What we know:
It holds the Pfam family Amidohydro_3. GO terms for molecular function: hydrolase activity, acting on carbon-nitrogen (but not peptide) bonds, in cyclic amidines. By secondary structure, this protein is of the alpha/beta class. It has 2 domains: about 5-60 and about 360-400, Urease, subunit C, domain 1 (Roll); about 60-355, Metal-dependent hydrolases (TIM Barrel), CATH 3.20.20.140. It is built from 12 helices and 16 strands. The chain has helices at about 85-100, 105-120, 135-150, 170-180, 200-210, 225-240, 260-270, 290-295, 320-330, 335-345, 345-355, 375-380; strands at about 15-20, 25-30, 35-40, 50-60, 60-65, 120-130, 155-160, 185-190, 215-220, 245-250, 275-280, 300, 370, 385-390, 395-400, 400. The protein has an 8-stranded mixed sheet, covered by helices on one side. The chain has an 8-stranded parallel sheet with strand order 5-6-7-8-9-10-11-12, sandwiched between helices. The longest helix is centred in the middle third of the chain and has 18 residues, at about 225-240. Mean pLDDT is about 95; it is low at about 1-10.
Amino acid sequence: xxxxxxxxxxxxxxxxxxxxxxxxxxxxxxxxxxxxxxxxxxxxxxxxxxxxxxxxxxxxxxxxxxxxxxxxxxxxxxxxxxxxxxxxxxxxxxxxxxxxxxxxxxxxxxxxxxxxxxxxxxxxxxxxxxxxxxxxxxxxxxxxxxxxxxxxxxxxxxxxxxxxxxxxxxxxxxxxxxxxxxxxxxxxxxxxxxxxxxxxxxxxxxxxxxxxxxxxxxxxxxxxxxxxxxxxxxxxxxxxxxxxxxxxxxxxxxxxxxxxxxxxxxxxxxxxxxxxxxxxxxxxxxxxxxxxxxxxxxxxxxxxxxxxxxxxxxxxxxxxxxxxxxxxxxxxxxxxxxxxxxxxxxxxxxxxxxxxxxxxxxxxxxxxxxxxxxxxxxxxxxxxxxxxxxxxxxxxxxxxxxxxx
Length: 405
């Protein structure tokens, strides 16, 4: 039988005999939702629930840095994808399908969020479409999911204008309404190629973010020199408005196609302004260079993007799989390099998204995953079932089975 959160006493939890990434065998004591102590042979207090880790590898809860819970068809009949090749084809096709099918963002986001939790994700950033046709309907569904899972899953919501802002009057006002309604982050999309005016588009985005005191996460698919130009304009505004550490650039394909000198100059500016980069590590386009980002001090983290939706049949709520795909895309084979890929869906993602109190140390929030694997590299490659998932100090999944939520 699965253990539910209500099965656990409020007095605390002790997980015994688990292994850290460095091979040390420890126990983990949890109280009030946080790691109280981590070390060998911790005392078995009578008021603690004891779980035998049986030598499993201990990992921090995973972080999904970029997904679209509101779009997914997870658990629904197979969607037959016959969409055209252009970005605008995908946008229009999705809007049409969601309207015609009665797609329920609340129901679907809840199904996929639960699947993420079952696989070990305890913190998640999701982009939600804000659209003049649908209004705030998709946001309302995802807000309901966040409320339902709020005691065991941290969810940041990005108000995302999937069709851009300038070409659809009324979108700016809707984005403001979304931020007032509970969205945590302001999204944006391709200021040059979708909005057609990168200066006006970025000015609008940064003004709106400043008025609502929200950070920004922008989709930047623009290639090569066009993307570099847009990125430069964005960095100018980060510097001028003092928004260091409050901006994420998602995808940033242009950084994988620029001459090294131009690329490195942008990476140095990104690092100085603490602007993080998100990659889904797609196999079919250029990506920001992982090692160069690390050398320059740029935070690069990972996410799935869409999971099983009208844009793509691919994706999985298993962040170990996403880390493996990141490693494969960047040609990582050494164990220490695979640990970097895992960092993209754990520590680096938590840092970039601003999820506080993360990690495996006393005082951190107790978000833990136990797997039968020898090392972190082994866990990425084998992706074994999750023996135990703990979030906010509560057992939320055991042996791949959800607790009740």
